[in-house]
Amino acid sequence: MYDPHAHATDMGVKIVHRPIGKETGLWVPRYNAIFLRPGMTARHERSVLAHEVAHATLKHSATSRREEAAADQLAAYKLIDHDRLVSAFKWSRHIPEVALELWVTDHILRTYLRSPKWQDHP
Question: Locate the IrrE N-terminal-like domain: which residues (predicted)?
């Protein structure tokens, strides 16, 4: 199972928990750091951190809709195992239930379901 904390550490990216306004996570290249809002559930933090690690991996320096979509998609691909998703859909088609089973947010699951990886191999 993908561990975004370990991935960030392997990349030398610092993870800092501190209030950051309304945002849940923020990649700041000049500090080589990801800032995360404290108090998120472990599942939510895992999804947010994977998204921010994707920004770092993709070397994003600004925030645009295109970069946000790319980070979401990379995070979804890293976090969701295709076979586990297929197995989960055998017993439920309810997005929140399947997302919980896969330990991701509903948003990350929906991103995966809209992606070519799912569309080509449902």
Answer: 9-97
